[in-house]
Amino acid sequence: MRTAAADLSSLPEGVIAYILSLTTPLDVCRASTVSRIFHSAAQSDIVWNRFLPPDLDVLISRCKSDDLDFDPISSSSKNIFFSLCDSPMLLDDGDKSLALEKWTGRKCIMLGARNITIVWSDTPEYWTWEHHPDSRFAEVAVLLQVWWLEIRGRMSCRILTRRTTYGVYLVFKMNEDEYRGFNFDPAEVRAGILGTESDPKTVCLDPDLENSHLRLAPWLMDHSLEMSSGLEQPKERQDGWFEIELGEFESGDGDDEVEMDLMEVKGGTRKTGLVVEGIEIRPKPTSVLA
């Protein structure tokens, strides 16, 4: 192994940079520790241009320059790459964001609450729109009360990394001590390419099911546990929000549209306290398709 590294280190730096560009961002970071010439080659724009989206210029034109954490002209490709990994770029009217997966450079998209359909969200008796300090978007949707919960989204696959398996996730919080009704009736979710069959599944939206007795009358507890037992439950993210997977799909060559939805319309249970940031579409692990 050391002999092979020594042989490669004798190559011109530009050649090493080209070889590194054929790997992955993770491989490049590891290779940068091999020798000084590898470290120098690993900083090259030749390497990091390969990991940036080919339509980056078009994407940058869709956002406000003041919102960028990098200078598109003077920043190195490496700095741009890691900036997009750590700080999602807001697109269009600021209700959609783009980030890059750090290990592969594949695109991650989030549709903000204003970019999806939430039934009754424009009715003040049921929903309100508020600023949230933990959200990347200007507004989130806050549920006051509904008996019928329906959230839908649709997006072109053209903006995604091609031939990749993506997962779709509802990103949300619950107003602490103020949310009710999500531990009683399961929600039905699904995601898939528009015009194709996608199998729905049922999930529980309550992130604290173990303490659901604090939010239910005692005579309803047995029914709540029976309905929610064994269902997939929300997971807490590193950014402090929760997420629940709605489904997965293959992006293909970008010619299709993906649609996703979450519904709980059968139980008739009053629901309060849900805070919707949006729907995230991100690559599943080891998801690049041949």
Describe this structure in words.
The chain has 290 residues and is an alpha+beta fold. It has 2 domains: 47 residues, Monooxygenase; 182 residues, Jelly Rolls, CATH 2.60.120. 20% of the residues lie in helices and 30% in strands. Strands 1, 2, 3, 5, 6, 8, 11, 12 and 14 form a 9-stranded antiparallel β-sheet that branches. Strand 9 and strand 10 form a beta hairpin. The radius of gyration is 22 Å and the shape is elongated. About 3% of the residues have low confidence. InterPro entries: F-box-like_dom_sf (IPR036047), F-box_dom (IPR001810), PP2-like (IPR025886). It comes from Cucurbita maxima. It holds the Pfam family F-box-like. This is F-box protein PP2-B10-like.
Portion in strands: 25-35%
Q: Report the span from N to C terminus.
A: 29 Å
For the report, how would you describe the main beta sheet? 9 strands, antiparallel
The CATH class of the largest domain turns out to be Mainly Beta
| Derived structural class | alpha+beta
How would you name the CATH homologous superfamily of the largest domain?
Galactose-binding domain-like
Number of strands: 14
Count of helical stretches: 8
Percent helix among the residues? 10-25%
Mean pLDDT: 89
H and E string: HHHHHHHEEEEEEEEEEHEEEE
Protein name: F-box protein PP2-B10-like
Organism: Cucurbita maxima
InterPro entries: F-box-like_dom_sf (IPR036047), F-box_dom (IPR001810), PP2-like (IPR025886)
Domain F-box: 5-51
